Amino acid sequence: MNIWRVLLAILFPPLAVIGKGCGSVLIVFILTVCGWVPGVIAALIILNNPKK
Q1: Transmembrane segments in this chain: where (predicted)?
Q2: Residue 9 near residue 17, CB atoms below 8 Å
Q3: What separation in angstroms does the CA of 21 have from each of 18, 40, 49?
Q4: Which residue from 37, 36, 13 is spatially nearest to 26, judged by alpha carbons?
Q5: Taking 90 as the threshold, does the pLDDT of residue 51 lie above it?
Q6: d(CA 39, CA 43)
Q7: Whether 35 contacts 6, CB under 8 Å
Q8: Tens-place pLDDT, residues 8-37
Q9: Could you tell me which of 2, 9, 22, 50 has the fewest CB atoms within 10 Å of its CB?
Q10: Distance (Å, rounded) from C-alpha 1 to C-alpha 31?
Q11: Quick one: which of 1, 19, 14, 2 has its CA closest to 40?
Q12: What global pTM score does this model have?
């Protein structure tokens, strides 16, 4: 996980996961609209996933 991605995930979560696919961006965007903290947590989890 890159430090710039982590900072981007904290500031604007959907933009941090843009390289992980459209589904990830959509999920993080919806969670960010519902509340900023769930969006940040989801973005950090997606970024920390070693599969992709």
Answers
A1: 26-47
A2: yes
A3: 6, 17, 13
A4: 13
A5: no
A6: 6
A7: no
A8: 999 999 999 998 889 899 999 999 999 999
A9: 50
A10: 21
A11: 14
A12: 0.87
In this structure, are residues 31 and 24 in contact, taking their beta carbons and an 8 Å threshold?
no
CB within 8 A of 29, min separation 6: which ones?
Answer: 13, 14, 39
Tell me the DSSP string of 1-52: --HHHHHHHHH-HHHHTGGG-HHHHHHHHHHHHH-HHHHHHHHHHHHH-TT-
Specify the pLDDT at position 49.
Answer: 87
Between CA 36 and CA 52 the distance in angstroms is 24
> What phi and psi, each to the nearest 5 degrees, are found at residue 31?
-65, -35
* Amino acid code (one letter) for 18: I
